[in-house]
Structures are given as C-alpha cells and as structure tokens.
C-alpha cells in the first residue's frame, strides 16, 4: 500500500478536495480496470475523455480521482485532485508509485521515424554479449533480462513502463534501451523518467494523421531531447537534415554520428551486399551481418551509445560484428528454386525507398524484383500514394495488397495507393486485395534468381481486418507457397 501524498510528489496541483494522507492500492487511467481503493486518473483521449468515466470509477470503489476538471458531483470519502495536465500527472505518479525505477539503471531512449526497434534491439544484444543484465522496451518485445513479455505499443503507457523498469531493477538490470515514439512523447508516456542518454535516428514522413504537420511531428520528437537532463548524452544523426534541430535546446552533452558529414562518430560503407555490410569505423574495418546502407547508420548509433556508456571502442567494434539482424527487418531466405524472399517492416515511404534501393544495389544481374506492399488502415492516409509510387518506380512489378486494414475498406486503401503511381509505371503494378493471394501472385511470376520483397508487416504475426486479428506471418506464408509451387 502506498500513500497518495507521496505518489503526488512533483505533480503540479491546482486544487484538492479531501485528504491526501490516504493509502491507495493501484493507479488506473481506464475506469474499466479500476477497483476498491485505487486512484483513477481521468485522461482526455483521442476517441473519448476519461473525465466521462469518473462517476463509474467512483462507483467501482476508487478512493481518489485525479482530473483536469472537478466533477459536478463529488462523493464524500473520495479525494479529488485537480491538475493542469492529467497525462503528465499520470506519468509522474506512475514513476513515484514504482519508486522511480529509472534511477536504478541507465536508461537510454531512441527516437526517430525509422530504426528505433533496430537500434534498441542491437544495443540490447551488444550489452548482453558484454556480460550485463539488460532490459528492452520495443515494438517487437519487452525483455527484462532474459524474460520476454509481449509488446502492445512501441512506447507503452507510463504504468507499464515503470512496472517493467521496476521488474528490471529487481532483477539487477543495469542498462535498459527503450523506443520513444512520437505518440509516446506527445502523450507524456515518458515524462518523469530519468534518461542516461537519447539517440535520434532520422525523421521522415509518418503519422501525419496524428500530428497536424511535419513541423509539429518534428517538434514533438525534439521535446524528448529538450527534456533530457544535463547528466545525459544526446546523440544525433548529422546526415539527417533535422539532426541538428533535435539537439538545439538540449541540456545533455551533444554528439553526432554520420557517414556523409563531419561527426564525432564517423563511418564509411566499404561494401554493401546481401550477405552483409563492410564498414570502416574509426579507421577499423568491421563486418556486419546487417544489410543495407540504413543499417550502417543504425550500427553507428549503437557504436556511439555503447562507447558513451563507457565501453572500450575496440571491444564495441568486435561485438558489433557479432550482432544478429532483428526479426522481420530485412529477414531473407533463398528457396530451393533460387528465389530470394525478403520480409521487411518498411511501413513508411522513406523506409520502403531505402529497402528497395538497397535491394537494387545488391542485385547482381537482370533478376526481377517483385514488391508486395500495402498500407495500414486508420493510419496516415498521405503515406499511401507515396509508398505505392516508390514501390512501382523501384521494382520490376509492384503488387498492392492489404496491411492491417483495421476499420477501413481494404479496396479503398488500395485505391488511395494506386493514385501515387506515375503513368510510366502503370504497367508495372497490379492489385490483389488478399495478402496471401498477392504473395502467391509474386511467387507464381518469379523465376530462379528473382527477388520477392514483402514489405510493411515484418515481425507481425497477424492481419487485422474490421477489428479482428487472424494469424498471418509473411515469412511463413512465402516459404510455404514457394514449396507448394516447387520453386
Ligand atoms: C492514438 C493513440 O495513441 N491512442 C492511445 C491513447 O488512447 P486514446 O487517446 O485513444 O484513448 P481514448 O480511447 O480516447 O480514451 C481516453 C481515456 O479514457 C479512458 N476510458 C475509456 C473508456 C472507458 O470506458 N473508460 C475509460 O476510463 C481510457 O483508458 C483513456 O485513458 O491512450 C491509450 C492508453 O495509453 C493507448 O492504448 C492508445 O493507443 C492506441 C491503442 C494506439 O493504437 N496507439 C498507436 C497509434 C501508438 O501509440 N503507436 C505508437 C507507435 C507509433 C510509431 O512510432 O510507429 C506507440 O508508441 O505504440
Ligand atoms: N536507420 C534507418 N533509416 C531508414 N530506414 C530504416 C532505418 N532502420 C530501419 N529502417 C527501415 O525501417 C523499417 C522499420 O525499422 P525499425 O522497426 O527499426 O523502425 P522503428 O523506428 O522501430 O519503427 P516503429 O515506428 O514502427 O516502431 C525497417 O524494416 C527498414 O525497412
Ligand atoms: N507503429 C506503426 C506500425 C505500422 C505497421 C503496419 N503494418 C500497419 O499496421 O500499419 C503504426 O502503428 O502506425
Ligand atoms: Mg519500433
């Protein structure tokens, strides 16, 4: 049992009705989960407003309510705390509730449009190989040392983040690497955490359904660096045009990495093949199993962070060459009939362009490149024509299909995509709504030596249609189909 007054430490409070010297059981921001002696934090959301559920939470037995507007009817025996920003309050309360676990380990946050999962997962692997107990909060999975938990969000809600950090600190975890999404920053999910460092990967088009403009999206990401303490390091990509903007107002020590520009951590791509990358970092050659120029940036960010966290540079370079690629990120296999299938999580125009350019760089002859791609429903619609245009331009054939249509009509999403194809590329595209049939079409058309890229879903093992998730794994599907077709 914790005392409400302690949990409210550092929370900006406007008014209180009732006592705060009361024992509370748990904190909830969803009335459906609140029960006896809990605190209910009413949060305004994108669909509904937690304030509409205060009386329901009180009926369920909560002992305190934290809200931005006091309800008209206040119940005797319940404490009401009015705050200017209940999302911020929730995050600070979550940290306090779990005893501020971020202070018990060194927490590094990674933000940017693409590469967050890759960089955090590589850092997790590297520090594990170096002999530490490590934590990971990522889109793909949560790791508390060697214990794995399923991930629900890229950046979970503050109660979940602090619960995991608390578990980590109990397990003796020394370093935790976490993805910091723009939704996470905007919704204050990371407020109150003590970061030892922050890393910026890159900024390109995504989530413009949620953020009103690209500038707003950029400024939300920047806020993560603005709020880093002076004890932290902030590492940015000097080759990204927004790289320096990110660090403009940070109090943290600033560092840069780059391939094209002058930087504190410089790398050069010597070779880029389907078997991996040969890099030169600090005059040392390093071989990596990771594929694609963009991964050279991810590896440099990892090198910079590991070095700034106190590791010997040569040891870091040695460990870099041992790192495995992350599930669903440029995962590839060659069938018996010599067809290469690549599954990648590229779900933004920039990621798709990078992956296709990489494939086109490593293509050795006249092989055909089939790209199977869709765009998510209930997500940024302006990505759709851009991704389709890129797929058509950079492939021999682009097959447009479904990628988690969610509540939307799958065919309407594909129609939005088709609008982005340049007239000279029309002949190179076809649309097959069912993802399995789309992959089958690519497999049927492919001949020995050809490459099939299946983009957008990466590690995901489901397809979400009208709110229902059914099992679907791109890699499993393509492998089965190629076998069935004797290819
Ligand atoms: C758009 C978005 O980010 N939504 C998140 C947000 O929900 P919301 O604002 O829509 O909440 P709401 O449904 O309007 O409800 C408002 C409040 O009322 C409460 N409520 C609601 C109903 C009720 O009966 N009782 C009740 O108390 C809700 O618990 C909530 O606190 O807050 C919820 C609780 O933290 C999140 O689960 C939810 O994530 C949804 C599921 C989601 O899909 N989010 C995605 C877009 C997201 O966050 N993605 C980023 C990664 C993106 C990337 O970088 O690629 C991520 O970090 O995962
Ligand atoms: N540094 C990078 N620059 C550009 N594209 C990248 C980079 N790293 C990865 N990608 C591409 O972006 C895809 C997603 O990578 P990753 O999962 O690491 O990104 P993320 O930032 O975690 O994405 P999300 O926002 O969904 O969490 C990869 O499959 C690859 O196609
Ligand atoms: N973090 C991203 C993932 C998109 C992956 C894609 N497969 C989709 O479902 O749209 C999002 O939630 O927008
Ligand atoms: Mg991610």
Automatic annotation (TrEMBL):
The record lists UDP-N-acetyl-alpha-D-muramoyl-L-alanyl-D-glutamate as bound by: 31, 154-155, 181, 187, 189
Q: Which residues carry this modification: N6-carboxylysine?
A: 221
Q: Which reaction does it catalyse?
A: UDP-N-acetyl-alpha-D-muramoyl-L-alanyl-D-glutamate + meso-2,6-diaminopimelate + ATP = UDP-N-acetyl-alpha-D-muramoyl-L-alanyl-gamma-D-glutamyl-meso-2,6-diaminopimelate + ADP + phosphate + H(+)
One biological-process term from Gene Ontology? Answer: cell division
The record's EC number reads 6.3.2.13
Mur ligase N-terminal catalytic domain: residues covered:
24-98
- The positions annotated for binding meso-2,6-diaminopimelate are 379, 403-406, 456, 460
> In which pathway does this enzyme or protein participate?
Cell wall biogenesis; peptidoglycan biosynthesis
| Keyword set, alphabetical order | ATP-binding, Cell cycle, Cell division, Cell shape, Cell wall biogenesis/degradation, Cytoplasm, Ligase, Magnesium, Nucleotide-binding, Peptidoglycan synthesis
Keyword Ligase appears in the UniProt entry:
yes
The record's GO CC annotations read: cytoplasm
Modification after translation is described as: Carboxylation is probably crucial for Mg(2+) binding and, consequently, for the gamma-phosphate positioning of ATP.
InterPro entries documented for this protein = Mur-like_cat_sf, Mur_ligase_C, Mur_ligase_C_dom_sf, Mur_ligase_cen, Mur_ligase_N, MurE/MurF_N, UDP-N-AcMur-Glu-dNH2Pim_ligase
Q: What class of enzyme is it?
A: ligase
Q: Which cofactor does it need?
A: Mg(2+)
Residue positions annotated to bind ATP are 112-118
**Chain positions of motif Meso-diaminopimelate recognition motif:** 403-406
According to the UniProt entry, its GO molecular function terms are: ATP binding; magnesium ion binding; UDP-N-acetylmuramoylalanyl-D-glutamate-2,6-diaminopimelate ligase activity
**What does the protein in this record do?**
Catalyzes the addition of meso-diaminopimelic acid to the nucleotide precursor UDP-N-acetylmuramoyl-L-alanyl-D-glutamate (UMAG) in the biosynthesis of bacterial cell-wall peptidoglycan.
Q: Which family does it belong to?
A: Belongs to the MurCDEF family. MurE subfamily.
Q: What is this protein called?
A: UDP-N-acetylmuramoyl-L-alanyl-D-glutamate--2,6-diaminopimelate ligase
Q: Which organism is it from?
A: Robertkochia marina
């Amino acid at each position: 049992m914790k005392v409400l007054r302690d949990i409210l430490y550092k929370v900006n409070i406007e008014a209180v009705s009732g006592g705060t010297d009361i024992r509370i059981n748990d904190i909830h921001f969803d009335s459906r989960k609140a029960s006896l002696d809990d605190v209910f934090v009413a949060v305004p959301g994108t669909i509904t407003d937690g304030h509409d559920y205060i009386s329901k939470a009180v009926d369920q037995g909560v002992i305190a309510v934290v809200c931005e507007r006091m309800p008209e009817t206040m119940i005797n025996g319940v404490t009401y705390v009015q705050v200017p920003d209940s999302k911020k309050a929730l995050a600070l309360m979550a940290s306090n509730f779990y005893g501020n676990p971020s202070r018990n380990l060194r927490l590094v946050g990674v933000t940017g449009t693409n590469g967050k999962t890759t960089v955090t997962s590589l850092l997790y692997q590297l520090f594990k190989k170096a002999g530490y107990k490590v934590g990971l909060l990522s889109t793909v999975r949560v790791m508390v040392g060697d214990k794995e938990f399923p991930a629900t969000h890229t950046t979970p809600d503050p109660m979940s983040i602090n619960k995991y950090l608390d578990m980590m600190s109990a397990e003796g975890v020394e370093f935790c690497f976490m993805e910091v999404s723009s939704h996470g920053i905007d919704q204050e999910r990371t407020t109150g955490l003590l970061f030892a460092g922050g890393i910026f990967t890159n900024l390109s088009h995504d989530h413009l359904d949620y953020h009103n403009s690209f500038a707003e999206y950029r400024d939300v990401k920047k806020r993560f660096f603005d709020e880093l303490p002076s004890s932290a390091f902030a590492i940015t990509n000097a080759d990204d045009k927004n790289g320096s903007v990110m660090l403009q107002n940070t109090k943290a020590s600033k560092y840069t990495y780059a391939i094209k520009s002058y930087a504190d951590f410089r790398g050069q791509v010597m070779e880029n093949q389907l078997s991996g990358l040969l890099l030169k970092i600090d005059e040392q050659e390093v071989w990596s199993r990771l594929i694609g120029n963009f991964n050279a940036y991810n590896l440099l960010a990892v090198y910079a962070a590991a070095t700034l966290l106190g590791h010997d540079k040569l040891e870091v370079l040695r460990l870099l060459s041992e790192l495995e690629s992350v599930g669903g990120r440029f995962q590839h296999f060659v069938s018996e009939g010599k067809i290469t299938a690549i599954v990648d999580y590229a779900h933004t125009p920039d990621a798709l362009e990078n992956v296709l350019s990489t494939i086109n760089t490593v293509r050795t002859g006249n092989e055909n490149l089939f790209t199977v791609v869709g765009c998510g429903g209930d997500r940024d619609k302006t990505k759709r024509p851009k991704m389709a245009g890129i797929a058509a331009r950079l492939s021999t054939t682009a097959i447009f299909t479904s990628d988690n249509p969610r509540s939307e009509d799958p065919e309407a999403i594909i129609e939005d995509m088709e609008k982005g194809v340049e007239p000279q590329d029309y002949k190179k595209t076809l649309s097959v709504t069912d993802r399995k049939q789309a992959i089958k079409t690519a497999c049927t058309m492919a001949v020995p030596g050809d490459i099939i890229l299946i983009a957008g879903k990466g590690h995901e093992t489901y397809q979400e249609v009208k709110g229902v998730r059914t099992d679907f794994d791109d890699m499993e599907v393509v492998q089965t189909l190629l076998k069935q077709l004797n290819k």
